[in-house]
Design a protein that fits this description.
This protein is an alpha/beta fold. The protein is built from twelve helices and 21 strands.
Length: 418
Amino acid sequence: MSDAEIRNDPVVVVGAGIVGVCCALYLLRDGHRVVLLDRTAPGEGTSFGNGSIITEEAVVPVQTPGIHWKVPAMLMDPLGPLSIRWSYLPKLVPWLTRFVGASSPAQVETISISLKALLTGALAAYDPLLEAAGIQDMVRRNGWVSVYETDAGFTAYKPMLELQRRRGVRFDVLPAEELRQLEPSLAPIFKWGVFYPDVSHTVNNYRFVQELAAAFVRLGGEIRRVNVVGLVQKDGHVSAVRTEAETVSCSAVVIAAGAWSNALAALLGSKLPLDTERGYHLTLPHAGVSPRIPVYSTERGFVCTPLENGLRIAGTVELGGLGAPPNWRRAERLYENASRWFPGLERREESRWMGFRPSMPDSVPVIGPAPNHKNAFFAFGHGHCGLSLAARTGELVAALFAGRDPGIDMAPYAADRF
């Protein structure tokens, strides 16, 4: 038995977003003492403003074949669905090179297989956590629909539909008249729709994280609102986490700090190509329309989700780092796009937001042990799938920590794959 176990030092989870909270809950379920550390309250980072989608169909990476031809357009259109800030380009080049390099048909096929293995069981992994928190009613399991305004847009996406089909994703292609029957709130401007039945959404993603965090505390976990600044290491182990206020002894540490995980991973000897996709949202509490299910556009890169506090319009990708101020014109573009779908949207008392998706250039998160430390684990880089994969990640981290078989090959998610 180690000295840490004799002292009964806790497992420390760094990061109180949805991934960190789910990791903390799963470790707590295994009987460990767990302390959750973050400079902000649970759910106040990236988890505050996502599209609220929990899906097992997200087997298509962001970098699809031919993405290299789109890089000039990303630079020229600052309001496009996928854009790059010129000022950030010099720093982004290494990440962007890997991003483009992972877009070959063979690479995309392999990545989709890795994503499928990770996504399978993602919703079921939430079930024990929802039960513990008493919030089963916060998840709607009604599917979502992807819509296409042009025949060209639908045709361009057909290879990705075939990729989804190869991964066993269930979907139904809907002509315009069937799409109108499925979602009558939409304007009659669409040529095609694709309905995915195995997709869920939460009615309030921020409250969702808060409720799970509250259950973690009720069950014996501890949350401290502190800024983590370092790690104490000895003989290949992490013995403590240093914060601005104190040093917290630990038996193990889980780094789940989203887009801010890089600095801590580097302290453990892992220099990873983690960057951030800046995403935007508008929430309209008096929108005047509430679609039955979430509606998504691959052509325009955003989703409209009905929440308990209004209509959430979220999405797009801006590659610009953590330091640049928001470009609120992107939020305006979201409104313009959504207004095409739902004419006359009411903006009274709207709120807008920008957050940082922690993204790896191959669209695959880092989940598993730190290569150089026996008691440190990574759980970050989930990109667009943080909410979808949070409980699944917690389940896997807890299994790895306990020495249990995680049930899948973890090599595709390893930190040393780069």
